[in-house]
Amino acid sequence: MRILLTSDLHYKLRQFDWLFHAAPDFDAVVIAGDHIDAQSSLSGAVQIAALSATFTALAQRSHLFVCSGNHDLNAWNGQGEKVANWLGPVRGDDIAVDGRNGLPVDGRFGLAVDGDTAAVNDTLFTVCPWWDGPYARVEVERMLEQVAGARDGRRWVWVYHAPPEGVLSWTGKRHYGDSLLPELIKRFSPTAVLCGHIHEAPFKTGGSWVDRIGDTWLFNAGRQIGDVPARVEIDFAEQSARWISIAGVEERALQ
């Protein structure tokens, strides 16, 4: 199982183009939130239309997992919490049938988004939405409880935008980690959590692209300028991961 993780592309279309060409070399591609550029002169609606088409095209090249980030929230749910409701219509048809109920599905390729769980070979991927408040957090906990019961010993990977507080959440000045995530990790013990959100963490002294909580591996690729995104390549068969960026290449054995 080879996974390509990136995040925080913020509508850098050339970085999406790079992903399009790289995707077939991986069993799964993960984009862990913040797809929209709030500073762009283009409206959110225009960006959403282009991103939706881009995700659909990428999902023809590899299994694609896309979660919302704090910059992607464009609507409100019934409890007054912000959500990225534009992602739902983009999901693959096979995912739409089963994924929202926490039931693993498999197919040649597909696009899973917030609230979906899908199986790729021997690995379950669960995509967690950005939780803007207590109601969304409760729904995520319910989803994880349901999927945990169907795990059957398989590898379990979560996709969520924010890392927990620690080296993955360090900006060089302060931490911006999620306070609930460590509790969920300790409770459910996923194999890995693939994050983003803190652009600087891998590039700053005191920060990193990789961390652990118990037996759970945590990854954050960070964000960089240019046409090629910073990324983490994870190979569970070879028990290794490497971070590739303008800063160079770092490798880590996963044992």
Please write the string of helix (H) and strand (E) elements: EHEHEEEHEEEHEHEEEEEE
**Weakly predicted, low-confidence segments:** 96-106
Rg calc: 16 Å
Task: Enumerate the strands of the largest sheet in spatial order, edge to edge or round the barrel.
Answer: 6-3-2-1-13-14-15
Largest sheet: 7 strands, mixed
The number of helical runs is: 5
Count of strand segments: 15
Q: Can you identify the CATH superfamily?
A: Metallo-dependent phosphatases
Which band does the percent of strand residues land in?
15-25%
Query: Which bin fits the share of residues in helices?
Result: 10-25%
Given this structure, which CATH class is correct?
Alpha Beta
What does this structure look like?
- The structure is a single chain.
- This protein is of the alpha/beta class and 255 residues long.
- The protein has a single domain (2-253), classed as Purple Acid Phosphatase, chain A, domain 2, CATH 3.60.21.10.
- The protein has helices at residues 13-22, 44-58, 93-98, 134-149, 181-188, and strands spanning 2-6, 28-31, 63-66, 75-76, 82-83, 111-112, 117-120, 123-127, 155-159, 192-195, 210-213, 216-220, 231-235, 240-245, 248-253.
- The protein has a seven-stranded mixed sheet with strand order 6-3-2-1-13-14-15. A six-stranded mixed sheet has the order 7-8-9-10-12-11. Strands 4-5 form a two-stranded antiparallel ribbon.
- The longest helix is centred in the middle third of the chain and has 16 residues, at 134-149.
- It is globular and about 45 Å long.
- 48% of the residues are buried.
